[in-house]
């Protein structure tokens, strides 16, 4: 009998019930705030309102006049920083041939100065296509921002719907969370977040009439396709393939879907890896064949990026003044050690997840994925503000105390607003140290607050129960009973 295993008949009965969508008629002590169709519609509606606020936040930087290239005037850069309404979307209207409506990668490349040319952008191919589509009918940076927002908003809404179906009221952390206001239209991250959440959804809710009663390999194959697609928007969903492989290797929940007379499903594990890899290759292949230099340039650009004041990572702030971009020796050290430490954090998360599997009988693939994401955010040389959107679904999918999410939102707000205010202070007031004003101190709160919280969350996530298929407790705030609770 495997670790934590009970009788096969009992496990199948319990597993099917918990893997399917939680029933809204569960009987619990105390008054329960039900989550039904109206609540799900409300969740999506609130997300829509938050997305509108997010667009309004970034739209403050557009217009009222435009120059001959469609750049907002007057004082675009100064306004974007001082008003903290900067977005990569609006900024990159110029400089990547987006304003010229050049299809990405095909005719592009990277020059000797490390500058992208000919329509190549510094993102994976499907994000490049989203960028091109968002600019298709635009002739100003304001039009580009609007087109991109219209294109990406449905991804955010579907994410809210899926999180609501998966975790009910905890999805409010996504739908009305401050990160959605700050970053929904800061960069092009909503599509990739949907891919990651959708992978969890198909694993634990399935699709069609069969739903979660579909075989594990069928659900896992679809999830692997979604994670492979996610890789072609932004790279991070690829790391979730590893814990998914181990979940399949161990037969899913309590090992109840292992092949007969097998302790592990090695064949299934490698099939999942192959599906994810094949998906990523098939999407990238047309671009690589049509314009290899332009396609490769997007990866080269990211590899050449230094740990500097724009990367927001502890690599820059933790090693001042040695981390000056002109210090080639230090930058080479970061280029070497950052990926090594990231991979080490992945290995540690996978190992600790395996230890938990040995105790409980189910490999906690969602928890391990969340911990791996924390390791990446902490140790990668670039920690862009919008990466917070990647983390928010993990607060929903795992039953960590809400204090973790609130604390992270506060630190992130200090960073997300403070960094641009500080850039403005540097330009106008020549501020150079954290003693030159509160904005610089806010940046420090953001940098070190996020770093400390990511270390803590690495552990908290690995020990957390899933909100997706574990029984829902009577209290929404762990350890704090409520007269009326959210379920």
Automatic annotation (TrEMBL):
Keyword Transmembrane appears in the UniProt entry: yes
One GO MF term: GPI mannosyltransferase activity
- Which Pfam families does the entry link to? Mannosyl_trans
UniProt keyword annotations, A-Z: Membrane, Transmembrane, Transmembrane helix
So where does this one cross the membrane? 35-56, 121-138, 144-164, 180-202, 222-249, 270-292, 336-354, 363-382, 402-423, 443-464
User: What is one Gene Ontology biological process annotated in the Swiss-Prot or TrEMBL record?
Assistant: GPI anchor biosynthetic process
Against InterPro entries, the record matches this protein to: PIG-M (IPR007704), UCP010361 (IPR016570)
Residue numbers spanned by region Disordered: 1-26
Give start-end positions of Basic and acidic residues composition bias: 9-26
Q: What is this protein called?
A: Uncharacterized membrane protein
């Amino acid at each position: 009998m495997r670790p934590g295993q009970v009788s096969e008949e009992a496990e199948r009965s319990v597993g099917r019930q918990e893997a399917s969508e939680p029933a809204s008629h569960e009987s619990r002590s105390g008054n329960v705030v039900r989550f039904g169709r109206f609540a799900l519609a409300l969740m999506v509606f609130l997300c829509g309102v938050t997305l509108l606020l997010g667009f309004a936040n970034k739209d403050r930087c557009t217009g009222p006049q435009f120059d001959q290239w469609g750049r907002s005037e007057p004082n675009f850069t100064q306004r974007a920083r001082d008003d903290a309404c900067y977005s990569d979307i609006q900024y990159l209207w110029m400089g990547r041939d987006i304003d010229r409506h050049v299809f990405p990668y095909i005719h592009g490349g990277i020059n000797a100065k490390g500058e992208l040319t000919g329509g190549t952008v510094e993102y994976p191919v499907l994000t490049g296509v989203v960028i091109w589509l968002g600019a298709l009918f635009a002739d100003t940076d304001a039009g580009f921002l609007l087109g991109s927002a219209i294109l990406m908003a449905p991804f955010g809404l579907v994410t809210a719907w899926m999180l609501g179906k998966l975790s009910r009221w905890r999805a409010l952390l996504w739908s009305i969370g401050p990160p959605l206001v700050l970053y929904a239209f800061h960069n092009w991250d909503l599509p990739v977040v949907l891919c990651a959440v959708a992978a969890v959804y198909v694993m634990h809710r399935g699709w069609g009439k069969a739903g979660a009663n579909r075989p594990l390999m069928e659900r896992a194959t679809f999830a692997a396709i979604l994670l492979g697609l996610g890789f072609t928007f932004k790279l991070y969903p690829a790391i979730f393939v590893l814990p998914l492989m181990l979940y399949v290797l161990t037969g899913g929940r309590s090992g109840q879907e292992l092949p007969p007379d097998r302790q592990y499903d090695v064949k299934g594990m490698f099939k999942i890896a192959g599906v994810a890899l094949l998906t990523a290759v098939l999407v990238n292949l047309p671009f690589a064949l049509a314009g290899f230099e332009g396609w490769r340039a997007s990866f080269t650009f990211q590899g050449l990026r230094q740990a500097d004041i724009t990367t927001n990572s502890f690599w820059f702030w933790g090693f001042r003044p040695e981390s000056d971009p002109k210090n080639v020796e230090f930058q080479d050290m970061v280029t070497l050690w950052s990926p090594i430490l990231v991979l080490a954090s992945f290995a540690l998360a996978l190992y600790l997840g395996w230890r938990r599997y040995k105790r409980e009988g189910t490999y906690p693939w969602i928890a391990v994925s969340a911990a791996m994401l924390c390791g990446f955010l902490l140790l990668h040389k670039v920690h862009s503000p919008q990466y917070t959107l990647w983390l928010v679904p993990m607060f929903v999918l795992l039953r960590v105390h809400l204090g973790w999410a609130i604390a992270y939102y506060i630190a992130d707000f200090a960073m997300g607003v403070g960094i641009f205010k500080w850039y403005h202070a540097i330009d106008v007031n020549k501020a150079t140290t954290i003693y030159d004003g509160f904005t610089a101190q806010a940046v420090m709160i953001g940098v070190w607050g996020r770093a400390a919280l990511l270390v803590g969350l690495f552990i908290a996530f690995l020990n957390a129960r899933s909100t997706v298929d574990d029984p829902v407790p009577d209290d929404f705030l762990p350890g704090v009973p409520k007269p009326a609770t959210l379920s």
